[in-house]
Design a protein that fits this description.
single chain; alpha+beta; Ribosomal Protein S5, domain 2; Alpha-Beta Plaits; 2 domains; 7-stranded mixed sheet; 4-stranded antiparallel sheet; globular; disordered N terminus
């Protein structure tokens, strides 16, 4: 009697991301400067019946069981766009989650790849998953997750790759989960209530994005840091910062960083800093924050 050899685990990966400049204004058509992190999400596919396991969260999603849970609905959106093979998926996060580092987009991209999606179909599935989780995503996160490297992103034009030397960053976690959906809603409220002021900030942020892109291309970390710090002032005025973020930015500047700002949706999550990596990391750790180093590169 012949036997079928067990399926060899297949591994599928996707990048996390950082937004160096331009979050929130990017939702309204302005460009953002972003980069892919080497770390992200790994999905192992083995023979099975469609289960999605996330051991770090003690979660198992069974697609045959109806569920209103957000993750289950996001997974269903990806499966709906795939000819789902008879596989179970085990997902591992190699970056902080709920931190503004694109973990949900990396999850969607890695899961989609494990289910055989690629190209436009993969992008569509990831966008559908992100919409379930975040409400009104710009599309930046999953686009950078798929492509890697640096780029200028707009909703209408996608990602324009940018050639640049590797950029070292220090990333610190506020200890508070980011609130992308709530902060996006708050910016929409400000746009309705104070349209001219809010649009003026969007325009100022766009100028900083262009300045920052040139600085990255030239390897001018001081100029990039100055643009980041100014961008943070606009984000604070748009009500997407929080006391923890402001404190971390101040500590980084006092430790000699060229610049620091939130990255991602805001309301919590992570702060990124450029310049004087070791003193900044030491200062954040001394203040009780979780810290790690990362490099953005093509």
């Amino acid at each position: 009697m012949s036997t079928v050899a067990p399926m060899t685990p297949r591994q599928h990966r996707a990048h996390g991301k950082v937004i160096l400049l331009g979050e929130h204004s990017v939702v309204y058509g302005h460009p953002a400067l972003a980069g892919a992190l080497a770390d992200g999400v790994i999905v192992d596919a083995t023979a099975g019946r469609g289960l999605l396991r996330i051991p770090q969260w003690d979660v198992v999603i069974d697609p045959t069981v109806d569920s209103d849970a957000t993750l289950a609905r996001a997974y269903a959106e990806i499966r709906a766009r795939a000819v789902a093979p008879a596989v179970d998926l085990t997902l591992t996060f190699n970056l902080p989650t709920g931190a503004g580092l694109g973990s949900s987009a990396a999850m969607a991209v890695a899961v989609g790849r494990a289910l055989g999606l690629e190209g436009a179909m993969l992008a569509d599935a990831a966008m559908a998953s992100e919409t379930v989780i975040h409400g009104t995503p710009s599309g930046l996160d999953h686009t950078v997750s798929m492509a890697g490297g640096f780029g200028l992103f707009t909703r209408s034009g996608g990602l324009a790759s940018l050639k640049a030397a590797p950029l070292p960053l220090v990333i610190g976690h506020t200890g508070k989960a980011r609130d992308t959906k709530g902060r996006v809603a708050r910016v929409a409220q400000l746009l309705a209530e104070r349209s001219d002021e809010t649009r003026g900030r969007f325009a100022a942020i766009e100028a900083l994005v262009q300045r920052g892109a040139g600085a990255v291309a030239r390897g001018s970390y001081g100029e990039l840091g100055a643009a980041m710090t100014e961008n943070q002032r606009h984000l604070e005025a748009l009500d997407v910062s929080c006391p923890e973020i402001e404190r971390m930015c101040a500590i980084a500047r006092d430790a000699g960083a060229f610049g620091a700002k939130l990255t991602g949706g805001g309301g919590g999550g992570c702060v990124i800093a450029v310049g004087n990596d070791r003193p900044v990391a030491d200062a954040w750790r001394a203040a009780g924050y979780e810290v790690f180093s990362a490099t953005v590169s093509a």
